[in-house]
Design brief:
Blueprint: H1 8-11, E1 17-21, H2 26-42, E2 45-53, H3 59-65, H4 68-87, E3 96-104, H5 106-116, E4 121-126, H6 131-137, H7 140-147, E5 152-156
Helix pairs in contact: 5-7
Length: 165
């Protein structure tokens, strides 16, 4: 009796909803090219997520810049401008895109958003942290890979630019 291998197309995962977390850095924008390419291939919806990181400011910082709520509102406004700039690019034509800005701890908010919105894949960039910083604190990408309930594609900053297949 001969057993045939399963049909490769049937075994392929279909990514219907892709989460693209961004901090608007060059590292995260490199991952965007991969996200868009996958979205076109699988006709996926893309959710773009930016997390305004919560921090405990030094009291001197508050004296200079005002109340914490005012500071976070300004961070949110800045993030909205950067998100709008990102969304103006032509590369999003013919794609189903939604954008979200949340205040919180990045890796926690990314994982929570992914679970709450049933994403099939997370595509994100990886920062080039120093070895000591990485050992002491880990990275957002590492924490997302460890805790996510779906596959995670981490894109490192390349030596060459991405070429759309």
């Amino acid at each position: 009796m001969r057993i045939n291998p399963p049909d490769m197309e049937a075994a392929m995962v279909n990514f219907k909803h892709i989460l693209y977390p961004t901090d608007f850095s060059p590292y995260s924008t490199v991952a965007l090219d991969y996200c868009i390419s996958l979205a076109h291939k699988y006709q996926s919806k893309i959710s773009i997520l930016h997390v305004v990181e919560v921090f405990l400011p030094d009291p001197e910082y508050l004296t200079l810049y005002g109340e914490i709520d005012t500071i976070y509102k300004q961070f949110e406004k800045d993030a909205e401008k950067r998100m709008a700039s990102l969304l103006e690019k032509n590369q999003f034509k013919k794609l189903d895109i939604s954008s979200h800005i949340i205040i919180g701890k990045p890796f926690i908010e990314i994982i929570q958003f992914s679970r709450n919105n049933n994403t099939d894949l997370i595509v994100m960039g990886s920062h080039g942290k120093s070895a000591l910083s990485h050992i002491l604190f880990g990275s957002t990408a590492d924490k997302v890979v460890t805790k996510a309930s779906c596959p995670v594609l981490i894109v490192k900053h390349p030596e060459h630019t991405f070429v759309m297949p």
